[in-house]
Structures are given as structure tokens and as C-alpha cells.
What we know:
Elements: E1 5-10, H1 18-31, E2 36-41, H2 43-46, H3 53-69, E3 78-81, H4 87-98, H5 101-105, H6 108-114, H7 123-137, E4 143-145, H8 151-167, E5 178-180, H9 215-224, H10 243-255, H11 260-267, H12 272-297, H13 301-330
Parallel strand pairs: 1-2, 2-3, 4-5
Helix pairs in contact: 3-12, 4-7, 4-13, 7-8, 9-12, 10-11, 10-12
Bound molecules: ligand 1.
Amino acid sequence: MHKKRVFSGVQPTGNLHLGNYLGAMKKFVSLQDEFECIYCIVDLHAITNKQDPEELRKNVLETIASFIAVGLDPVKNIIFNQASVSAHSELAWVFNCVARIGWMNRMTQFKEKAGINKENASVGLLVYPNLMAADILLYKATHVPVGEDQKQHLELTRDIAKKFNNDFKSENYFPIVEPLISKEIPRVMSLRDGKKKMSKSEDSDQSRINLKDSKDLINQKIKKAKTDNNSIPSDINGLKNRHEASNLISIYASVNNIKVSEVLNEFGGKNFSTFKSKLVESVVEKICPIGEKITKLLKDENNLNEILENGVKNADLIATKHLKEIYKILGLTKFT
Ligand code: TYM
């Protein structure tokens, strides 16, 4: 039996949004009292697409500030950046040799991100899921809170763990991870198109609510969010094929920690303008204090760097120990 340990990561690509918060970070916070948790700023993942070096440095600090601002305790949890713990890259190489090319070719996120010009995407983008598996398995994490968009990558992580355990006769060495995906809101969708996920790479800023958006901007974005001409249903079946309506109602439920059915009980039969005013109130109440805290924390870079350095030390202790075991299983010699 493996000890219960949580691991998750967020890319430092700027503009963390409501999707990141409701889909993942809110769960990070609720897990910290129950489990040993490790939360990573995955800067090596970010460079699979070209990054401006100065922006990347700033975005790492902004991501750590966001972790603290949403309520993660840097003493209780290990919070660190991936590039500082070199065992991530070393294990990713091992997994490049365990995973099969056919497995990589099935990854839908690669297809989406590479777009039509697949030949021109970085090799890193293709093997990105192996680095993600390395992030998780390096700590022998058992539970991974993520949004639904990461589910396929976690299935791949399970396949890699099984193949490694099997190929090297190390039964049960790596745990078979369990994804923790919100039931209420597995995917927060764009405010402009209820079939697309809310994303930092979407061109229109109107499609998302960023953690640092002001009250006025949140109000304007929600008021302009796409809906349909029908009123809010009283029953969950009435949301079928109403992607935008469904999304706004799920956001309201998640922000207020209630069930979708409770939202429908409250608003069933009402029109969207009444509902949207309430939604603005709830989102502003939840998000604006986080945004203000991020801005405040960013004023003290030394403090943020100290938190990271401390996290790096703790992460590195576990990572180095496990990498040694893994190299030994593989028959690799490492004289350090
Ligand atoms: P990233 O940086 O794109 O997103 C961070 C987390 O936010 C979730 N998320 C969403 N959830 C619901 N609705 C949305 N619209 C939405 N947008 C983003 C993501 O699912 C994720 O949980 N590959 C990962 C980072 C990563 C990782 C890991 C995660 C690297 N190594 C190991 C877990 C474990 C990514 O790009 O997430």
C-alpha cells in the first residue's frame, strides 16, 4: 500500500483564471488539511511553447503568489518550481523510453495545441505527458487534483506506471494514481462559447475571468456572457444541450459551494438577467479578494522566492531518494 500523497501542477503562463481556480486550485486548498500535498509550478512545461524569459520569470512569481492567495499554506504544503528539481527532467527521460510513440500520438491535447501544423510543433510538446507523469510519479503521488482536460494525461501516467512496474519486475513500485476531478464543474467553459473550455490561450479576454480582474471587469464580462433565449429551468434535464446556460449555472454552484439542483431550485423560471446579477455578486465576492492578495504578495518578491526555495529543498529530498531507487531498478549507475 502506498501512503496517500497529493501532487498537482500549474503552468506559469500568466493570467490564471476561474477555470484554473474552480477546476483545480480550489480543490488543492481543500486537500491540504487531509493529505500531504505537493504543488508545483511547472515552468519546464511552459517552455514547450516559446516564452519570453523575463515574462516567464515574472509568471513563476505570479503563480506562487496565486497559490498563496487562494489559501495554500506554504508551511503545510510543499510548494516549489519544477526547474529547481532536476530529477523531474531525468525521470522524464526514463519515461520517454517507457512510453510508446503510439501512446503519444493519441493525446488529444497535443493535437489541439499543435494545430494543423503538427510538423512544426516542438518535440517537447509531444512528449510533455511523459514529463507530467514524471512530476507525479517522482513523488509516488497517489491522488492528483486536476480539471477534466488533464484526464487523458493521467490515464497515460497510469499506463506508464503499470508498464514500468511490469517491465522491471517491480510490482507496485509506482502507485496507480487516482485523478480527483470536480463533479460539479469538471470543465469551466468559455463565456463566449459554451463548447470551448475557458483558457488562457483564447484570444478574447472576454472569454474568461482572470483572478486579477477588477469588480467592474467581472461585471462587464458576465453581463456580456453568451446565454440563450429561454429562462432558467427548474430541473436539470432542462439544461440539456444548453452549454452556455449550463456553464454559468455550474459556475454559480461551484463558487457558492452548492449543488446545481439547488441553483435551479432558487432560479428556476427566472430570466438570465436576474441570475447574472447574482452571479456577478458571487464571483466578485470570491475572486476579487484573491486578485487583491496576489497584487499585494507580488510587492515582496523576496518573500515569494523564500517560499519557493524552501519548497525546493523539501521536494528535492523526496525526489532524489526516489530517483536513486528508480536508477537502481533500471541498472543505471549514478556516482553522486
Ligand atoms: P494548466 O496549467 O493548463 O492548468 C492548471 C490546472 O487548471 C485546470 N484547468 C481547468 N479546469 C477546469 N476548467 C478549465 N477551463 C480549466 N483550465 C485549466 C487544469 O486541468 C489543471 O488542473 N499539464 C498541466 C500541468 C501539469 C500537471 C502536472 C498537473 C504538469 N504536471 C502533474 C497535474 C499533475 C497543465 O497544463 O495545466
